[in-house]
Amino acid sequence: MRLSTKARYGTRAMLDIAINYEKGPVSLKSLAQRQHISIKYMEQLIPLLKLAGLVRSIRGAGGGYTLSKDAHLINLRDIIDALEGSIFPVDCVDNPETCERTKKCVTCEIWKEIQDSINNKMEALTLADMVERQIKINQ
Q: Quick one: which of 29, 57, 59, 127 has the most CB atoms within 10 Å?
């Protein structure tokens, strides 16, 4: 299982917005520059995050994007789901009807356990946790 560039860059964008939260809205241009992501690509990511209710836009001079809720209330799974949709290692974990063997297949059970572990870890890791870790790395 591999996350796309969309998930990786979108997570970095959310982290940047959270780190700069106290300074006010983050412009798309400054966000793109700090993250070394093209504005065009950022323009594709932000609407997905906005649609998921993770960021909101503020218009006018000094406008930009800010978190729509506290960083403690946003977890990594929220971000990944917004950008990728649900991620599963194999189809039968997401949709058991895709395989006639699902109910009697030990490998399907194993993939499900792996998926549950990934989801639990992503749900436990908040955006606030990521900000804290980034600040420690930068010290």
A: 127
